[in-house]
Specification:
290 residues; alpha+beta; 2 domains; six-stranded mixed beta sheet; 6 strands; globular; binds zinc ion
Amino acid sequence: MSSQPSLEQIKSKVAAVKKRNPAYGEVAAWLGQLLALTLEAAPPCLPPDLGLAERRTGQRLAAGRSMFEPGDLPLDLEQARGLLTQLKERAAQRPQGREQAQGLERLLAAVPERFQEVVNAFLAGDRQAQAQAAEELGLAPPVQNLFLRLALRPSLLALAQMVLEGLDLAPWTAGHCPVCGTSPRLASLAGEGGRRSLHCPTCETLWPHRRLCCPFCGNQEPEELVVLTAEGQEGYRLDICRRCGQYLKTLDLRSLAGPVIPVLDDLVTWHMDLVAENYLEENPVAPQAS
Ligand SMILES: [Zn+2]
Ligand SMILES: [Zn+2]
């Protein structure tokens, strides 16, 4: 499933974050404004033939192969450049955003081939290539990724919508995104018994996934699947796998207002990443006997 949160939903999420955790108020409001720009952007133009008919066979999904690979997504980069220009102008209006805007200016001045390479490094999660580009541009890698993510958002959401229309996700049991292959960072629980969905950080698709199963390594041993909760953080929990050392930040939508807005919810739960990293440092994963 993929659906674009409305401007109203973005605004109410920003207000809820501010109320819940004032430390994130300013950054949430800023990101809300940037997300609003992605909603207002001109629609992207995707290639008319995505080869969906051949990709849509049940065997492909049953074999755990996503419809596209993170490095070969057909996106409208011209539209993304236009939107990135607007995002850069918005960044420049923020006192601490001047340097970010200069870095984005350098990215926008790059030849199309280089721009494509930087986009591919982001989509494929190639940390080394991301760090190299970020250094060249004078940007912090997370900032570079955030702006690329926002600039590509209309294309990614349009692609996900085209791919998911009429697609039966029933055979899909894998832990990565069925559309673009990216691993999730966020999960949500909803409905009776708290059914779990995983959320793609790239194209915002959500898909159901069994609760007692690590999406990263398939581990189903209850004693190796750790849940951490914190006082005063009702509705939020960490699901950590003691076998592979990966984790999900989980939002319980039975007590928190939805929808999950991956780019925003991921940023305003940054403290949970610190808790998870700390836990894994103190409880290192034991090497598995094969
Ligand atoms: Zn995806
Ligand atoms: Zn695992």
